[in-house]
Structures are given as structure tokens and as C-alpha cells.
Amino acid sequence: MAPLAARDTSSQSTHNPDASHDMMEDPSSSVRMSAEIPLLSGHLSVDKSLAVASGPGSWFRKRRKPHLDAIATQPSVFDDPETAKHHQPRPDWENIHRFDPTARWSWSEEYTIVRKIDYKIMAFTCLMFMVLELDRANLTQAVTDNFLDDLGFSFLCAELPSQLISKWLGPDRWIPTQMVLWSLIACSQFWLSGRGSFLLTRGLLGMMQGGFIADIVLYLSYFYTHAELSIRLGFFWTAGSVADIIASFLGAGLLRLRGVGGLAGWRWLFLIEGLITLSIGFLAFPLMPPGPCETAGWFRGAQGWFTEREEVIMTNRILREDPSKAGMHNREPITPKLLWQSITDYDLWPLYLLGLNFETPMTTPQQYLTLILRGFGFSTLTTNLLVVPAQVGHIITMLLFAYLAEVVGQLWLFGLLAQFWLLPLVAVIYTYDLNAMNRWHAWAILTVLLACPNIHAIQVGWNSRNSNSVRSRTVSAALYNMAVQTSGIIASNIYREDDRPRYIRGNRVLLILCCVNIVLYISTKAYYTMRNRHKEKRWRRMTDSQRARYLETSKEKGNKRLDFRFAS
């Protein structure tokens, strides 16, 4: 959360004269002298009077590049003693011993720490997601090896949430446990014998894999600011797309084992990729620290990954942006009352509705791509390789949109643009018979369609921003992901057997959904704009003393607070 208005910051110079000088030397990034109570916001667009220059190496340079030795500490509610007392971390918060609102640091220090977090934390979470995607994508490779013929049916698979368990045990404990359990189940698919065993293993996989992404998002929020998290979630889903590419090549090789030991190639595919996941799962136990100030351990070293100075910087830069991140201990369970409060948080429902719909026009053709390409007459090997260009294009456009969304500061706009990308291409596959086309032309159309930028990473970060409390962020991440997974189930049922081979009815549904999504993005923007204006109107009617009394006595929590603004 970024403060929208700041008090007189001249007192900061008593702590560090350079800090005040650095903030004031550029008129575009100066701090306005104001007696207003600072506002908090999940919104990307902060008051231009604040010193919010991006640090070196930042993805979002809206200001001139600061000197490496310039003060990177940003204005926050902790700069004013009157407002600071209403945003103090809980005494049992795991990082409380590193909380210091007077701490100041340079861009050089912050840059070094963020890169260190990237190497130590982000890189391994991407690796974990890659092996998750391998275990999910191997079904796509298996169908090219007559897998469905061998089992005699098609199927749907849904993830079940495990976010509440993760919040209770801690992501550092639950995520590795999940990985070990689902990898064992994935390996057991080697012995599939029919419908019953298939349903059992895929159901158990869904239970064990469910909540993994939501767990990771919550875990990463302990280390990164909102803007940093958005682009890193883009790389996170890029890792999934890279895994899909690897799965295509790996699948092409492993399926050649068909006949070894008298067994089908898909059996070896499930076994070998499951063993890869198992090894990463065991490695996750020692490599995932509970939080920024808890990295010491037998495997990570007695002194941990970060110095005391680095822990102070990590703790305070996160809290200065979003004080709500100190609202719960990282191993504190969500009570039934808190769960109900989070589920009934109507201000997040528009994002859940977007999660339910936005991917479907792309997901349906994607799920059937290998079967469609086989129907065009391509071989198993060629089919697995022809999906790669779409995946590469998808990676490029996803990262580009994640970057531009932060630069422009309009999250909804890029969701809208993604739907306008899909709309004409879905119209083409609805209007024309791809089976009657030259198969390479048909492949090109599908490739461009599936190279559409997936704004899932943007919307996950959007959801996290607008939660404004650990309690809500924990539950909303799971609910949003459940909505996305439900969209996958819906997408799997749009192309029906009685609609083959052109899927006219199915493509008409996809076309309608594109139009519905366009309306949803515009409506979501309008809703959050309306909510922010309503809050602003009430806030500005208050005197300074009334605002101070509100902060001290109000029972409104999280994103319901009048000093919070929604991102849109």
C-alpha cells in the first residue's frame, strides 16, 4: 500500500539529512508539506507529490533514475507519530524484532537485497511451479500416445484449495509436503489400469496440488512489494509456460519408450516426471525459509541468508508500503469468523468473476490443441513440437503485459486488450472450418490465438493489492484461484462430442464469452472507481481530529477502511 498524502516530512532530516535532500531536489518527486492524515492505497497511482522514484534495476522507472547512494526509504504512515500508532505491527509478528520506522537505506542496498531475494526465493519457487506444470502437462502429452484410447474415456480434473492449511502450518512446511505427496501419486499413474484407478489418482492429484499457487502467492508477498510481486508473478507463470515447452520435448522423447518392458510410453512418462517432482519436493524442505528474518537453518547456514541490516531493510520496506502485512503471524490459522469475513468481502467479488471467465476463450482451444493437431494429420512427435511456438509467444506477451500494466498503472485496461486480441481470432475459428483449410494455415491461426497474453499474473497481484490484510489475502488468493480452476472445468465442457468436428456451437460460446469479458473489465474499473470516490468523499468531509479518531476507534478493517484506495 502506498501513501497518498504525507505530513510535513521535515522531521526526517533529523534522522538523515540526505534523505530529505534527495526527496526534495527534484520538484516532480518532492514531498508536499501537508497536515493531512496519510492515506493507504492498493492503487498503483500514488500522489505525484510523493518521492516514489523507482530504484535502480526497477521495472517501473516513472521518474529519473536515482543515484545509487540516494535514500530509498519511501514516505509512509510511520513518518507521523499520530498515524504510526494505528499501524504498529502485532507484538507476536515473526519479524517484529527488525521493525524500525526510523531506518533509512540507499537504493544500492535495496537493489542488492531484491536481487538476493530473486536468487534465493523466487528462482526456487519458479522451479517448483515448473515441476507442478510438468505433472499437469504430461496428460496433454499422453493423449498424443493414444492414452485416452487405452483408458477409454476423457476426464475433468479440478484443484481443491489447501490455503487454510498452509496459513496454519506455514507455507514453508505445507508446500514441500504437498509436492512430495502429489509426486508419489503422479508416479503411481505408471500402474493405471482403467477408469477407476485413473479417477482415483487424478482426484488425489487435484487434492494435493490444489492451493499450491495460492500458497506461493502468499509466501512471496512476505518478501516483495506489490509492484515487485506483479512482474515476478509474470516470471512465475513464465516458468509454467517454459515447463510446458520442456514437457513437449520431454514427452516426445519419453513416449518413444512405448514398448519398453511391454508397456505404453505414457506409463514411463508419468513415472519419470513424477520422480523429478519428488526430488524437488524433498529439496524444498530445507530451501524454503519461513520468512525474511527466519532464514537460518542447518541447510541454509547458522547465520542465514541475510545480515541483520538486510533483514531490517526487508522488513521495513515491506511495511512502509503495506502495514497490513504485519497483521497476522505467518503460522496463525484463519478462524471460521475470519474465513466468513473474507468470503463475504464483496469488494473482491468482481475479481473472482473475472477469474471465472477471462481465460475460457483461450483455455478451450488450448486444452484440445494436441487433439486438434492430431486431427489435422500431424504425427505424435510433430504435434508435441508444434505447440512450442504458441507457448513461446505466450511467454513474451505475458511478460510484456505485466510490465506495461505497472508502467501505465491501469490493470483493467490490459485485461481488456487481451480480450480484444482473442475476439477476432475466435471469430475466425467460428466462421471458418479449420479442417477444410491448409493444415499449416489452421495451425498458424491457433498459434496466434494461443499466444494471447495471459493476464493471470496481473490479476493475482491485483487481488493481493485489494485485499489489504493478511487474513483477506490468504483467503482471497485461494478463492480467486478456485474461480480460475472452475473456468478450466467450464472450458473443458464447451467443445462437445456432438459438436465435432467444427465445434460451431462451442466457438459461438467462446465468442459470446469474449464479449462478456469486455463488459466485465469495463464494469470492474467502474466499480472500483465508484468505491474510491465514495471513500474519498467521506474522508474529505472529516476534520483532522475526526480522521485521527476514526483511525483509533473504527471497526472497519482491511479494504473497508476509509483510508484505503482500491487498485484498478
TrEMBL record:
- The question of whether Transport is a record keyword is answered with yes
Keyword Transmembrane helix annotated: yes
Spell out the Basic and acidic residues composition-biased ranges.
82-92
Where do transmembrane segments lie in this chain?
A: 204-224, 236-257, 269-288, 385-404, 411-430, 442-462, 474-495, 507-528
**Topology in membrane:** Multi-pass membrane protein
Task: Tell me which UniProt keywords the record has, alphabetically.
Answer: Membrane, Transmembrane, Transmembrane helix, Transport
Molecular-function annotations in GO: transmembrane transporter activity
Q: Could you state one GO cellular component term attached to this entry?
A: membrane
Q: Where is there biased composition of kind Polar residues?
A: 8-17
- An example of a Pfam family matching this protein is MFS_1
Q: Which residue ranges are recorded for the region named Disordered?
A: 1-32, 72-92
Task: Name where it's found.
Answer: Membrane
Q: Which domain of life is it from?
A: Eukaryota
Task: Note the PANTHER family from the entry.
Answer: MAJOR FACILITATOR SUPERFAMILY (MFS) PROFILE DOMAIN-CONTAINING PROTEIN-RELATED, PERMEASE-RELATED
Q: What is this protein called?
A: Major facilitator superfamily (MFS) profile domain-containing protein
Q: Which organism is it from?
A: Cyphellophora europaea (strain CBS 101466) (Phialophora europaea)
